[in-house]
């Protein structure tokens, strides 16, 4: 989808962004994605299978991720980011960074914190 | 691999998701869940419980969302396909909107009038108790003593009440006005469960001082309309004393608006209610009505069984009055709406016909459309779309159009319903309850869903998705296949048949109205106004001052005749108002005959315009001191004497007074327009036999309404307490009698025009499509030397075949269902051959005409162009 720009897709839902983040450092299958998110957030965010695969379906359809055979021994598929998906994730991360920066300027977050 | 129970449960609830989603991710999801489960088990504690609650909550949210997603995708696709074929989509949409709109309107009408419970508490328990007389006199009335015995004997009724109607003139507070008054026995309001809007209803104390059978009220409950009309809706009306037939009565209450029990058979809606105690004498006077409330737990059948036994006992005990008389209980709702039941169901039938035609048309359109899309569908199958998906896709398309049509249909119905109600003839019960409400939306939603699904399924069935490879090959010819073609022809034939049935119904109604219009009335209704002039006090038991009455009438008539423009004036019964009183008369030979008797003044028969066949009319000389005289109609003349000249012959009234025949007049319609007139006699009003007919007829040279102010001013001079009632010209009265049928004709006529047009559009479409599909074939035929006429005839012949089968089906259908029309039709048979023939010819011609246009187009094809299409 050449016409689309990453910025048009923002903002992302937290769950969706977590999935993109989980895939940022390499391809993973569904269970690994859930596990990574749970560990990274110290159990604050736990995705269930229904939500995860709803997101996966949408990401696949929109071309943000694609399948890759990991191990290819069983029926499990792994997913990795497409360049477009990566740029959307990056755009969202930048958006969040700018927000945090603004919070610093406004002294909402104490400096040095 | 043996699955553990939690996996099985997880697999089971996975079914909440759409099948595609499951096929795509189901295995992975259960795999992942198994790992989550194992993790949770290692952690112990409540982890497993948390996992389950989390997963279930997640599924409950996500599964519906996924279903919606599928639906959205299908609908988007469907709308895209439809928007690409805008013409097709528009026609299908408009057709369905009309069909569904029409049916929604008729549904709401039937629902509100026939199906909804009456707006009374626990109204399902309310019954009407009809007396059933021996044939041919099947008077449905009830006599007061019978009622008292029923009430005392019945265990299945909680409460029962006797109801009658009378007319009383209210005076004071403005012009005198004759009111229709319902006389009700003690349990009336308790049985119905009605609470007053203001004040109270009757209490047992109101009945204590009343003499049985007398209607001299001390208290009165006003109907809402009367309260608004005469008392301006003022709440201080409670406690006020009004004069009813010169008797003072206290207003104790006002009923709520649209009180559901204002009508008793053959009477206009009541204006007010007074208490009456049933008279335990007069067992043979079966003229009252009765209602009851079933005891809790008792059914109508229980009550009927009980009343059969009671009636049998009474018939044995009082053979003179009750021999062969039975009792029939029917639900009050049914009884209140019986007068319009047939008409409404005929409307339903007509509306369903239109909907079926609309649905056939749309299915036809979809089939034509699908044949063009065969290549696309085949490609999608080749690319891996499952059958289920294709089926769903097609059904989504037809459902989308049907639902859009449904939305437009509801809007149409919401507009049409008030219009229909405003056009409805007077006297349709519960009309005020007909209003737009949520049931219309529910009905339209269901109707469009059913129609949409049916169209979709019909399309799938006939394009036969089983063999996509085949389809791919055949798609070059853009053909829906044999099954599809045949199915489309069947649909066309059904459309012709249904449209023909409606056209026949319309034809029967047209001929009925013409027959009624051409009916020999026996009098001349033009330029005549009819005005009720009830005497100030007509209550039974109150002595009527006949001399004063006679003086009043003769002075009034005398002054009126002197007025400008008045041709004739007289007093008698109300024409077309049910006639006079039934009397037994004894002829010279001693036979007793029952005749309709009327007491008329001089000038009445002249004002009515009755044709005098022999002798003279009633005159001013026919006074109490003169010999008793009567004018008889032709039927009565034949009955009372066998002599060629009946003048001068005598008969006895009620076997007593000897009465001489002084004139013979033509038979006139006295009751309804349909009913042929029986023997009738007209007695002189001056010779004391008083029947309580107080209707004045005034024949004028110009507009009869102009006579009304003259009458009003003369009456005011003579007696300021006199009310003028039921003012109507005879032409208006005849119009009113024709109104129900005229209304049916308008509605059914509209339906049949719609059906006819839709059917013809459908036929045109089928033949056009068939021409389009056979362009190559036509090219080859022409190239091989076929004449243009031959090509044209090829398609016209197709039309003729459709017409023949369709017309045969329609004639058969109309004949089979003709009984539904039997109460509406008059003057002709429901299988009237001329109507059937004309309608059939009309449809056949139109069908062939509709085929003619595409046939000409086929004939005009250039073979070179045509062959290029191969």
Lateral arrangement of strands in the main beta sheet of chain B: 2-3-8-5-7-6
Placed side by side, the strands forming the largest sheet of chain A appear as 1-3-2
Structural class of chain B: alpha+beta
- Low-confidence parts of chain B: 471-479
N- and C-termini, Cα separation of chain B: 58 Å
Q: What does the main sheet of chain B amount to?
A: 6 strands, mixed, barrel
Order of helices and strands of chain A: HEHHEEH
What Rg of chain B do the Cα atoms give? 37 Å
Please work out how many helical segments of chain B DSSP would assign. 26
Instruction: Domain count of chain A, please report it.
Output: 1
CATH topology heading of chain A: Arc Repressor Mutant, subunit A
Total beta-strand segments of chain B: 21
In short:
Chain A has 113 residues and is mostly helical.
List keywords for this structure.
heterodimer, A: 113 residues, mainly alpha, Arc Repressor Mutant, subunit A, 3-stranded antiparallel β-sheet, 3 strands, 52% helix, globular, B: 870 residues, alpha+beta, 4 domains, 6-stranded mixed beta barrel, 6-stranded mixed barrel, 21 strands, 53% helix
Task: Explain the overall architecture.
The complex is a heterodimer of chains A (113) and B (870). Chain A has 113 residues and is mostly helical. Chain A has helices spanning 14-24, 30-40, 49-62, 83-105, and strands at residues 28-29, 65-68, 78-81. In chain A, helix 1 packs across helix 4. Chain B has 26 helices and 21 strands. Chain B folds into 4 domains: 5-75, no CATH class; 134-324, no CATH class; 341-517 and 736-868, no CATH class; 535-722, no CATH class. In chain B, the strands form 3 sheets. Chain B has a 6-stranded mixed beta barrel with strand order 2-3-8-5-7-6. The two termini of chain B are 58 Å apart. The chains are: A mainly alpha (113), B alpha+beta (870). The interface between A and B is medium-sized, with 18 and 22 residues.
